[in-house]
Amino acid sequence: MSALTFPQALWQSLWQPLPIYQELKTRKGLSWIPFVLIMVAFCLVQTLYFNNVDWAWYQSQMLEPTLQSMPSKDRATVLAEMTMGRMLTAQLSIGLLGMLVANALMAFYLAKMTLVDDDNVQGFGDWFGLTWWCNLVVLVPSLVALVWVLFSSGEISPGAMSPLSLNRVLDLPVGHAGMGLAEALSLVLPWKIWLYYSGIRAWTRIAQGQALLIAALPAVVVYGCWGLFLLF
């Protein structure tokens, strides 16, 4: 960044994103920094958790309840195969791939929705880069999770990896129909929507109300449909 060092730019992008995003519009190739930070933070949290948790406790409390429909002899075999290493590998693979796919879908959505601005020249690659800047907000719960897990051992709830999810407030147990939605809904979601709104405003001439609608619509649709599915 011209006037700021990268650490300052990363920090300012969370609180005063507009000038940072405006500069990113003309400066390409800078999105690898938030990309690496987000991916590394995710891997650190997952690795620390699975290396610190009491695995026997995790199997009995977190894995076994999900296998209740299996015959007991098959359940024991499956549990024995669910080693810590395999679970960690699965979590890392699913999590990293999930972030890539989610950001790619968001970038495709933004590239299409912002075509309403005739002067918009930003393509899929540009918006894909911006998604990583907008997702820097996930570093906040990641840092909280790192501290939580680092100073814990034994019977550590998986909730330690998502300390700012709605389920930390609701405390829905494993097996509850709404647990997945409550875990997925983060308390920093409004912050992320605001960052997307700021990005749209910085890169296009789209009006405030329309920009806010574009920024919020994916979350409203995804979580709204999820909630309706649970209700009906």
From TrEMBL:
Keyword Hydrolase: no
Localization per record: Membrane
Pfam families: Yip1 (PF04893)
GO cellular component: membrane
InterPro entries from the UniProt entry: Yip1_dom
Domain of life of the native organism: Bacteria
Bilayer-crossing regions: 32-50, 92-110, 130-151, 172-191, 211-231
Alphabetical keyword list: Membrane, Transmembrane, Transmembrane helix
Residues of the Yip1 domain: 12-228
Primary residence: membrane
Membrane topology classification: Multi-pass membrane protein
Protein's name in the database: Yip1 domain-containing protein
Lineage: Bacteria, Pseudomonadati, Pseudomonadota, Gammaproteobacteria, Alteromonadales
